[in-house]
Amino acid sequence: MDSAEPQRIIVVTGAGTGIGRATARAFADAGAGVVAVGRRPGPLAETAEGVPGIRPLVADITAEGAAERIVRSVLNAHGRLDVLVNNAGIATGGPLGTLDRSVVGPLVETNLVAPVLLTQAAVPALEATGGVVVNVTTTVGQRGWPNNSVYPATKSALETLTRCWAVELAPRGIRVVAVAPGAIETPIADHMGLTPERRAAVRAWQIARTPLGRVGLPEEVAWAITRLASPEAAFLTGTVLPVDGGALVA
Q: Is residue 8 among the annotated active site residues?
């Protein structure tokens, strides 16, 4: 990075593990300053360990007023915001007949409401830098996931928001894009309440439907996120990029 250029400041939610951790590190490795947001201090500290460009920020993005507090903290510390990566998400759920508000509510609040409010709070800062919003969705939302319909529904809604915001915010100089991962080796499945046998069966099902014949790595998704958010991608907006080993087109 040219020393005359201001350092880009990136916010990554859900940065304690998986895709969020890989994304925070990828941006930092490229010379950006990264604010790694998550609920748990321990995993965030692991994300930042050995990477001076990452600053952990412990916050529950679903809490009242969290969006404004996060943006205010970033601006107080760095004076600017260039990229917002809405990565945090949960994938709990179940088939119809087993759902209640205790299951559906957190899914909608985490995967949909929180990105809406955080993006809204970040718009003035992003407008000042000609910034970028990157939403992390899922290719499952473009196909179908029986027995776990609410999770992909929230991610499909986030894709719709990506397209709507791309048009709405273009006059303000803000780009909005999304990356839609397929089967990726992350801890998100640890919170789905599946038995080891069921998890193995789901993974086998995913691999069988992925033409490249394997599960993806968080770093491969992070690569796509950093490229879509790069200045070289300045003519891309409203784009939803699958990173799924070909599963969507199979």
A: no
